[in-house]
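User: My advisor, Dr. K., asked me to get a structural model of this assembly before our group meeting. I'm new to this, so sorry if the format is off. These are the inputs:
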Amino acid sequence: MGGIAILIAGFIGWLVAHLRDGLPFSDQAAIIWLTVFVLAAIGFLDDYLKVKRQHNRGIFWKKKGWITFGITAVLMFILASTTGVAQTISFTRALSPGWELSGPLFIVWTAVMVWSTTNAVNVTDGLDGLAAGSALFGFLAFTIIAYWAFRNPRIYDMVNPLDLAVLSAALAGACGGFLWWNAAPAQIFMGDVGALGLGAALGTLAVTTNTHLMLPIICGINVIEAGSVAVQMGVFKASGRKKRLFKMSPIHHHFELSGWPETTVIIRFWIISGICVATAVAIFIADFTNQVSR
Amino acid sequence: MIAVLIAGAVGMLVSLAGTRALISFFNDSERVSQFSVQKTMVQRIRWQNRERQQWVASPF
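Assistant: The format is fine. Below is the predicted structure of the whole assembly, which you can bring to the meeting.
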């Protein structure tokens, strides 16, 4: 349930930053917060039911995936229809590669992106500080990307990039503050409320900053974690429920069972996360210099 | 740039204080300690998963 503190702190940080002149509230940031709090509410309900029932399966255990995907699709429809978000598949900019998607396809594509990110962050949240630390790196990357776009508006077709940078910085700071108490041995966990909320924020920031295809690089550790679960399930089912590729999935448990201390797994995964984010930012800056030199 | 820094700093400070307050709230023995229940539950689930995994991995 500690995720409540992260999300509220991020929201307060975002609000306080608007006390400065010259920073208007943007509709895109408002919809990002709406997405974050709606998905966090689902996570909160799931957390509450798990605690109340003393079981690791909430009421949504089998239906949760469909429910969250449906809600995410509705929120992406609101984002696409009420804001000027670029409706293209993007890597570093709206026009790179700039494959246009018609309305319904764009909604499905972005809903899949956001939904996948929420699940990937949820899967990563299994060791003390792992999800909060990797999310912190991700938000720092989006802060740099959005602020860079704000400084270079002729190259980046981004709506209200400064507000997106402020939102991302507020969530990065909130993750840092939470991590202070969540570092091993953790005194508090973020729970589904935090994991779903942070995943929603990362996914929607990728949509609004026109960096759809860069999201898997920025959230590289989350992709590895979620991928390990998918591969484990695939191998297990394909072998007639006899073989497993990893000792346990998600992959952080595989390394724990291989004898790595928990803190070693966490710090090594943070290093991987940092490398992923550095790679993404390097690609972003390289594309910028390429555009400028033309 | 200053707005970005303000957002990050305020977010961090509020999160530091807010998380500490949540820890105190959930650890207060006068209240129903949902946090403790959840923490115990998470540890138990982890332990059960490991037990299950070791059992499956066992040649016997």
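One thing worth pointing out at the meeting: Residues 3-216 of chain A form one domain.

User: Perfect, thanks a lot.
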